[in-house]
Prior knowledge:
By secondary structure, the chain is an alpha+beta fold. The chain has 2 helices and 9 strands. The chain has an 8-stranded antiparallel β-barrel. A hairpin with a 2-residue loop joins strand 1 (26-35) and strand 2. The longest helix has 16 residues, at 2-17.
Amino acid sequence: MIKKILPALLLLIVLCAFNIEDSFKGTWEYSGGIYNGKAVPASKDYILQRKYDAEHYDALFIEKGAEPIPYERGNYILKQDTCFETQTFSAEPSKLLNITLKYHYQIKNDTLTFNGTLPNGTVVQEYWKRVK
């Protein structure tokens, strides 16, 4: 009996020791999404990129041959499978400034998926690929 329980217990300890926040950190590029049931591909003319550290994110708009333009910045907190994001800067007027949004997230291989509902009722599912 102990021989069966011990491997399961060791696996549980290893999984608990794995810090999901560390896997969230890094640079991610937008690769498309679904908004109110309609698929929207990533643009071929520019790249949207997000950089996450332990508590903050920076979002960049990148066109070929031009300097990256910061378009959004904010704070985030992870709790289990939920990401709470609060936008603290927006280059454009934003109704989301200082409002905390709740997304369910999943990281599978090199893809970060956000699912949630925006304050205006838009249901979103976004895909971000890890680049660093």
